Amino acid sequence: GLSEEMLETLTLDVMEVFAVTPNMREMHSGRRKECTLLSSGLECIDDILGGGLLLGEVCELVGAGRSAKTQLCLQIAAHAIAHTPHAVLFLDASASFDADRIAHLVRARLRDALGHPAGPRLEAACELALGQQLRVCAAHELPQLCAVLEEEVAAGSHA
């Protein structure tokens, strides 16, 4: 078999050519142990991303209209809110953020994660999590997006 060193070299060479994202190359480089991965809550997406989303990185999702991009982003955000203490910044470039939908998704995930039955305790947990962990910013043009990202980098507080 291959030595661990040979396997690492081979992995880096393959990632240099075939990595889907720059983050995958970084994750498989010498900094791999420093990277914190955040599960999307969807195993197939985590597999494609090499284990999940890199904590602290900006992720942009693009695709054809009506291909469920917003739904996927809402599901990933809801999973992070319900299953981690990390804050989520949702940059809405298309005015498609649905507060009722993310509340529904967070409520369902908290019910599963915490075993809360439907009722006042679950509603309170949902409101608290959304209030403390979610920030939504509209960024319809590149200058707005850059300004929001610069502010967030300076604050350093979002997943």
Automatic annotation (TrEMBL):
Q: Which organism is it from?
A: Coccolithus braarudii
Note the InterPro entries from the entry: HRR_RAD51_Paralog (IPR051988), P-loop_NTPase (IPR027417), Rad51_C (IPR013632), RecA_ATP-bd (IPR020588)
Annotated keywords: Nucleus
**Gene3D superfamilies found in the cross-reference section:** P-loop containing nucleotide triphosphate hydrolases
Quick check: keyword Nucleus in the entry?
A: yes
GO MF, one annotated term? four-way junction DNA binding
What's a Pfam family this protein contains?
Answer: Rad51
List the protein's name. RecA family profile 1 domain-containing protein
One biological process term from GO is: reciprocal meiotic recombination
Supply the PANTHER family for this chain.
DNA REPAIR PROTEIN RAD51 HOMOLOG 4
Main localization of the protein?
Answer: nucleus
**GO terms for cellular component:** microtubule organizing center; Rad51B-Rad51C-Rad51D-XRCC2 complex; replication fork
The RecA family profile domain is annotated at: 34-159
Q: Where in the cell is it found?
A: Nucleus
